[in-house]
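Hey, I was hoping to borrow your eyes for a little while. I've been puzzling over a protein and I'd love to understand its fold better. The fold is given in discrete form, as structure tokens running alongside the sequence. I'd be grateful if you could look everything over and explain what you see. No rush at all, and the record is pasted right below.
>
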Amino acid sequence: MSIGGFILRNAIRNKRRAFLSVLSVAVSLFLFVTLLVGLRELTQPPHDTGSAARIVVRNKISLGNLLPSRQKATIEKMPGVEAITPFTWFGGKFRGEEVLFGQFAVDPKVLLKVFAEARMTFEQFEAFEKDPTACIVGIKTCEKYGLKIGDFIKLQGTFWPLDLNLKLVGIYKGSIDDRNLFFNHRQLDEMPGSTGEVGTWWVKAKTLDAVAPLVQEINAAFSNTTAAVRAETEQAFQLSFISMWGNIKMLVLSICSVVVFTLVLVCASTMSMAIRERFRELAILKALGFRRRELFAFILAESFGLAATGALIGVGGASFLFNQTEIVVNASQNFLIAFEMTPRIMGQACVVAAILGIVSSIGPSLSVARMSVVQGLKTLD
């Protein structure tokens, strides 16, 4: 029998224990990877090439406080401003369900100037601009609900006292989030009792160098008004949502540490049990002339092999689930734009598996090193 075959037979001698050991490693590393991917998506929101030049202007108190429409004239006159559009969240029910995709009221004339990455035919864009009851929808939402050009989309108002019946005239794609619905802000401006307020302003700067000065100028322009604003880059605006949850990074990393520590204890206990049952066999190998480092290598190879098998299943399964499907994105009710496992996260999981295999073999190896041939032969007598 070869050395490799000998190690393999020892590893799977107790098939149930080997299976449970591999399964525990796979499940734990799957959870470890899921937490790291989730943390990455929350703390490093995806952004496209145009996001660096976009500025979000919201009420300084909270997003729930609206802004007066008169602010638009002041902002668009500032040097460095290329385009500005109101961006008001509607949040209506679609087909009797709560919000499953973003619904925003905007200015159709400048929408594609602010979000230049979104691609749509000129005819569709023209129809959106001319018809106040029109809307455009991202291609992912259209595919999910089977929507097509000419369909009517009914949204039941929840936050706003208004129900909308919008005609789908365009389908866009190419942006970082091809799931949103956009409609003409006139629908909100002309509803009964409207005061002409907007949720936020989205501003496109002419150059990246103009972003920082614009942020300061916009904040200063309304600092002493009844509707003071907070202007920030798009990425900073996205991260502000995460800051409301507290120190989410510390929480997730703490959970990851507990998962790894528990996994080390489980695997070390399993390996100690497996080696303890084979003390007599190891003593015989010692008597036959096998040196300590060779016995250490057998134990390390067995421990490392079980950990590597579990890592292959857990990390490989996570990679397929997150990169090849949108199960997690759909389960999050579209809160997460993407849920992608990067090579770095995969590498971190593999390093954890390698450390796990090494650490789990230390205790059994020390026990074998201290064991004499006579003690080993008496173990199971």
Summary: The longest helix spans residues 292-324.
